[in-house]
Amino acid sequence: MADCPFFDMSVEEQQQWIAKEYEELQVVHEDNIVFAGKTASMIAHERMLESQRPDRLFNDHLAQYLAEPYGKRVSEVVGLGLQKFFDPDGEHGFRHEGHIHFTPARTQLINDHMGRWIRDLQGDKQVVELGAGYSTRAFWAEALRGVKMYYEVDTSPINEFKEKVFKDLDSKGLLTPSFCERKTVDIDFLQSSVKDLLDHGFSDKMPTCWILEGIVMYLGEEKSSSLLRDVSDLSAVGSLMILNFFQGNPASDPDTMENLLETRGWKKVERLYFGDEGFNYGKYPDGKAANKFFGFSFLQKV
User: What angle do CA 133, 99, 242 make, to 5 degrees?
Assistant: First the structure.
């Protein structure tokens, strides 16, 4: 808390601080990374924090190299802005750090569901992470030994920065081998279709684990629905969709998204909110009702 820039501010001062920081973070610099892209640094920063804990859920050993220049700053802005969703009455003890607890829990949740799918499904399979940001899962999630390809899909500025960091680490002997073959694919989800994956070796005949973590809520309602339809068209029977939602955001309403997918051959396996028994991982206070806003839907193509 000592280095928290808004810890001793009044509520009014905090709101002014958020507005000023957000305005500055909206500025696009020479790296061409917009604010939504800068949240990739935030997730890397928060995965780094978890990886440094002695009781860590996972060890994302590469996150430390991807967390800056925006990670800590965006984490603070988003964390304070989302306090009303994670700890509205102050009884959960999160204060402004609700998202810092949420990120490792959701990372491990994805790992567990993806890992089970990989182990249980026979034959060739692939994983596609849409809005992958600075994900380094291919380098530390051992379950990925069992897949043919891991596609990391995001905008070109995000992919270029990540690959530049990886190239630098590799030149210094600091980049460990990935557990499976990986491929970065440049797609602007507001301008292009995810069906462009077909031009990059993706097979719509092979079952796919789709990871949509922190993406649909940035697209708007129409683009979100279009993305889900395109993903469905690309999905073979046996595919799994891991779908992050923010209830209250029309673009990521779980009922709407699940209903759309169920009309296109998907069956809902589970819906979990942060704090549910299956989505806790020691990151949510005991005895408190699960969060009403943030969670994941899991659906399988049948």
Answer: 55
